[in-house]
Specification:
Number of domains of chain B: 2
Oligomer: heterodimer
Number of strands of chain A: 0
Structural class of chain A: mainly alpha
CATH superfamily of the largest domain in chain B: Nitrile hydratase alpha /Thiocyanate hydrolase gamma
Radius of gyration of chain A: 19 Å
Distance between the termini of chain B: 61 Å
Shape of chain A: globular
Order of helices and strands of chain A: HHHHH
Helix content of chain B: 40-55%
Strand content of chain B: 5-15%
Order of helices and strands of chain B: HHHHHEEHHHHEEHH
Shape of chain B: globular
Strand order of the largest sheet of chain B: 1-4
Structural class of chain B: mainly alpha
Largest interface: A-B, 69 and 70 residues
C-alpha cells in the first residue's frame, strides 16, 4: 500500500508536502478555479479524472496521480471548447523555449521565448 | 573530458518539464480568456498547502466525543454540524459522519477517483489516490487494514463507504479508553488523519 510514501499517518500535523511539484499545485488550483466559474460540474470533473486514473498502467504508488489529473483537465477543457489541444501544444512549446532562453536564476517569462520576441519584432517592423 | 565546455555559453539549465510547460500553457490560455485570475490561483494553492488539513476534522471528532448533543447533530446533519465550527467550502457541501461503535468499524474509499472531504481533512494522502487502495478497500478491507497495522476482532463488522462527487464521509473513531477528563483540545490530539478515514484508530492517551 506504500503508505510510508507520504510519511505514514502524521496524526493531524500538516502533511510534509501537499504537492510534489509546483505544477501539480497549479493544475489543482486551476481546476478548482474553473469549476467555481461554473464551466463544469464537479460530477463532470470526477468522471474525467476517473477515466484517466483507471487506465491500465497507472502507477501502484500513485506518483503519477497529477499527470492523470492534468490529462483529465486538458481533455475536459478541450471538450468544452475552452482550451484547444493545438493551442495548449503551441503555448507549451513557447514556454519550453522561454525557459531555455532564460538565464539561470531569473524568472521564466513567456516573453523570453525567442519566437515570441521575433513575432513582436516583425509586427513592429511592419508598422513602421 | 572538457572541464570548460560551457564557459562560452549561457547556462541553459532552465528546463520546464513537459507537465510544467503544459500547465503554464493552460494558465496562459485561461488567463487570456479571462477565465482565471493568477492571484486567485495562488490563493487556492496557499489554502490547501497551509490552511486546510486534518486538524479541522480532529476538532469535529473531539467535540463529538465531548458533547453528546453535538454528536447527535453530527449524526443527523453532518454538513451543518461541521459548518458550525467554520469548516465549510469546496468538497464539503454534502457530508456524512459515520460513527465507529464497539461492533462496527467504518472505512472510506473513493473507488471512482479521489473524492475526499477537503474542509475537514485537507487533500488526500498519496495512498488514498493510488490504485491498490482504491481497488482493494472494498474487496478486502481487513487485509488493507492489516497493512495499516489495524487488526479488528473477528466479530467486528467492517463497513466500507464509497465516496462520490456528491457525498463525502468523515469517520468518527471510537473514543479511546482512559481519555476521561481530557478537554477538547487534548482529545483532538488523539485523533489522527487515518482514524478519520478509517484506516487507523484514535491514539491512546499518553
Amino acid at each position: 500500500m506504500n503508505r510510508r510514501e507520504d510519511g505514514g499517518d502524521s496524526g493531524v500535523a500538516p502533511e510534509a508536502k501537499v504537492f510534489g511539484e509546483p505544477w501539480q499545485a497549479q493544475a489543482f488550483a486551476m481546476t478548482v478555479a474553473v469549476h467555481e466559474r461554473g464551466l463544469f460540474s464537479w460530477g463532470e470533473w470526477a468522471e474525467a479524472l476517473s477515466s484517466e486514473v483507471k487506465k491500465p498502467g497507472a502507477a501502484a504508488d500513485g506518483h503519477d496521480y497529477y499527470e492523470h489529473w492534468l490529462a483529465a483537465l486538458e481533455k475536459l477543457l478541450a471538450g468544452k471548447g475552452l482550451a484547444a489541444r493545438q493551442d495548449v501544444d503551441a503555448f507549451a512549446a513557447a514556454w519550453e523555449r522561454a525557459a531555455h532562453a532564460t538565464p539561470h536564476g531569473k524568472p521564466i517569462l513567456l516573453e523570453n521565448d525567442p519566437q515570441t520576441r521575433g513575432m513582436a519584432a516583425d509586427r513592429t517592423l511592419s508598422a513602421t | 573530458m572538457s572541464h570548460n565546455h560551457d564557459h562560452d555559453h549561457h547556462h541553459h539549465d532552465n528546463e520546464l518539464d513537459p507537465f510544467a510547460a503544459r500547465v503554464r500553457a493552460l494558465e496562459t490560455i485561461l488567463t487570456q480568456k479571462g477565465l482565471i485570475d493568477p492571484a486567485a490561483i495562488d490563493a487556492i494553492v496557499d489554502t490547501y498547502e497551509t490552511k486546510v488539513g486534518p486538524r479541522n476534522g480532529a476538532k469535529v471528532v473531539a467535540k463529538a466525543w465531548s458533547d453528546p448533543a453535538y454528536a447527535d447533530w453530527l449524526k443527523r446533519d453532518a454538513t451543518a454540524a461541521i459548518a458550525s465550527l467554520g469548516f465549510i467550502g469546496r468538497q464539503g457541501e454534502h457530508m456524512q459522519a459515520v460513527f465507529n461503535t464497539p461492533d462496527t468499524h467504518n472505512m472510506v474509499v473513493c473507488t471512482l477517483c479521489s473524492c475526499y472531504p477537503w474542509p475537514v481533512l485537507g487533500l488526500p494522502p498519496v495512498w488514498y489516490k493510488a490504485p491498490p487502495y482504491r481497488s482493494r478497500a472494498v474487496i478486502d478491507p481487513r487485509g488493507v487494514l492489516a497493512e495499516f497495522g489495524v487488526t479488528l476482532s473477528a466479530d467486528m463488522k467492517v463497513r466500507v463507504w464509497d465516496s462520490t462527487a456528491e457525498l463525502r464521509y468523515l469517520v468518527v473513531p471510537m473514543r479511546p479508553e482512559g481519555a476521561d477528563g481530557l478537554g477538547e483540545d487534548q482529545l483532538a490530539e488523539l485523533v489522527t488523519r487515518d482514524s478519520m478515514i478509517g484506516t487507523g484508530l484514535a491514539r491512546q492517551p499518553a
